Amino acid sequence: MESWDEGGVRARLREMAAQDPRRERFGSDTHQYELAPVLSEAEIRAFEATHGIDLPAEYRSFVAQVGDGPAGPGHG
Q: Which value, in Å, is the radius of gyration of the alpha carbons in the chain?
């Protein structure tokens, strides 16, 4: 499983927010450079079961360790 530096990711989001105070970057007016809380293993499994998919390992570890979107390209 990929290991993420949650503090580093959140620091980068704060840095990006500081560089875009008027929220002019695409999607920033929606996501506000914030991440939703992490998902539990049970929540991830439920999502996968509901949608009949297995999330890619790197994405799965991100939502489990750092946060469940929405900050990012294309709104998350």
A: 14
